[in-house]
Amino acid sequence: MSNEYDRSGEPVVQRFTREFLGEPNRYQIASAGVALLALLTVPFWAGQYLYVFALASIWAIFAMGWDIISGHTNYISFGHSALSGGAAYTTGVLVHNVNPDMAMYITFPLSILAAIVIGLLFAVPTLRLEGPYFSLITLLGVLVLTQLVYIYGEYTGGELGITAVSTLTYNLTNLYYYTLIPMLLIGAVLVVVSQSNIGRILRAIGENEAAIESSGIDTTRFKLWAFLMSAITMGIGGAMLAHFYGNITPSTVLVVDRSLEMVAIAVIGGMGTIAGPIGGAFVFIILRDEVLTVFGSTGRWLALWLIVLFFLVFLRDGIFPFIWSRIGSIGGGRDE
Amino acid sequence: MSREPSQQNRDSSSNSDRTNRRTVLKTVGAGAAVTSIAGCLGGSGGTGGTIKIGHIMPVETDNGLGSERSAQLAVDQLNENGGILDNDVELVTADSAAQPSEAHSAVTEMINRENIQMLVGTVVSEVALSLADLVAENDLPFLITGAASPRIFAENHAQNYDQFKSIFRPGPVNSIKQAEYLAQYGQFLSEEHGWDTMAVVSEDAAWTQDITDMTASLLEESGIDVAVNERVALDTNDWTPILDQVESSGAQTMIGALSHIPITGMTSSWSRNEYPFSLDGVMIAAQSPQFWSDTQGTAEYLSTATSAADGFADITPKTSEVMDAYQSEYDSRPTTPTFVGFITHDAINLYAEAVERAGTANHREDIDSIVEELQATDFEGSYGQIQFQGPDDEYPNDVYPGEGPGDEFAPFTITQWQAAEDGNGIGDTDGTKRCVWPETYQNGDHQTPSWM
């Protein structure tokens, strides 16, 4: 990545795109623009897929939340659904046990807070440890939380779950924009973070943490900040998912399978790129809920995980970085 | 010959995809606003000569597939007799995979893409509960045919009848009644065999809570010693400690409530090791007509609660009609409609009669007439006589349970796996099911295991 800052006369927009998107050629800019426009106009060209697209937006939030910590620093979390599920359950438990009419402006911030607290409890102590401990403890975190939901079934509804949560809306067009716009905003913030110096340090931690530490940077502090951002993102997504389905059950929001789906989405889309996982979420959810359904409900999962395996073996960087660099090489290619 | 209902659905869904796409293009061409497109796609509820019935079940289970095929059977029979209100009837089915989120997504799609006029299905209570708001919002008639939680009605209808009025349960009776009946069955066993000690073993899931709480205490009240009342984890693999515990307690029967935990291993372990007690209760896997072959015959003497005696007793004249029609159409697993299949078949037919009486199936514009006629239902189904509880009853729109398990209304039956005479077993096996309780529908005596 180039680090030339001596361009004082450069227009703001140009400088911004150079800073945050590298130096995209016009094809790359055009295709990013087309993708954005396509997302904004889904009701006009894929009206019958609005529900799936709305769900994909929420999963894009989860995948980005995972990506900002795990995709960047290589501290791989296998338990991110503990954060989103914790948030969803906070919304549900408040509505179910405290006040069925509790307003979203109260439940939403509390749900995000819950995601942060869960993150602090399970992950933060382990961010100092190297090796597999972070992954193992996040994995255990989600298992512990799932069992707690069953044990405290009186408050959480056990495997029956909580159905008292109000649904965002039954108008699918509105539902789509209610999920898309927060997703794009979160995406914008995280892309900026990812492309800033903070993002560079996070990626550098992933490549060689010892080297970064020896240059005097307190890596734990950066990892903490990344984790905090991740937890907030997961909290927002989790609370949204609760209101999306209008019900919260362990299998919908919490179990370890949901964590693995987040990892798979980020892998398919392109780890460590933020925008990649957004695209990955749409690919993954559409495959899962539309395309692979021809194999039946069990066969569909088999096909899905085989596809993920294929990506891990043959396209480890993910679809979107691959496409991005291909488009970048059109017309001579300024790719490094 | 077996048919492929899902193939038909795929064809029909691609038809409606085309229609929708044309609608979209036209509207975009006209430059209309986003919301008007949603209006077009949502549909008005009136369809051109076809009434679509949605079916949601975990179709990879025997109960789910039996229900799907029985629904297809009901739809075919309706079409042979002129359809509903002179419209053709079409079945649209989706797999819930027993997951609330899957079901919620699938039903949202069925409502918005397929424009279904009625929904039937669900065996898992959390699935039914999670669909309540969605179908209520769309004023969609929803007939629940397997899920037994009383919460569906206590938490919705009893709080706001008008909002949830389109949701009914033609059967089975709710889990509180089931817990009560199970205790009565225990008393029957006690009288029949002189047993005075019993064990109640439930899997640790919400649907069994009433059995843990009520069945055991009702048994105690009637003078039976409940030596074990255990809840076992859903991931139980090794049954030896539990079977040993029941044996050492001196119980003469273990009344189980087991659905999620596979019980084929437990059953063969119980039979091969000749544990000295009988196995009874609500054993979902044992409801399958293939349970005998699944357990290589060790299912003999095991009995389970079910509806319609799984088709092995003539509960009403219609029971054998549905059973025969099903068996002439399908010869693969499950080879009988399963208890859910009977109720689903009944649900579709009683819905057809109700909308015929109402003169409309247009739920979006005239749900009140449809609900009124559903409420007025007095239908002789294949699993029993079906009426619904009134809006002011404890569980509005839930099936009227009658006076007891042997009543003509919503009967509750127990079948036992027994050896068949002269090769008249299910499929190529030498096992069959007989209805052993209640007496009204009994066609065989409850047998104690030969080794007891």
Automatic annotation (TrEMBL), chain A:
It is a multi-pass membrane protein. It holds the Pfam family BPD_transp_2. The keyword Transmembrane helix applies. Its main location: membrane. The keyword Cell membrane applies. It is found in: Cell membrane. One of its GO terms (cellular component) is plasma membrane. It comes from the Archaea. One of its GO terms (molecular function) is branched-chain amino acid transmembrane transporter activity. The chain crosses the membrane at residues 51-69, 76-96, 102-124, 136-155, 175-193, 224-245, 265-287, 299-324. Keywords: Cell membrane, Membrane, Transmembrane, Transmembrane helix. InterPro entries: ABC_transp_permease, LivM-like. This is Branched-chain amino acid ABC transporter permease.
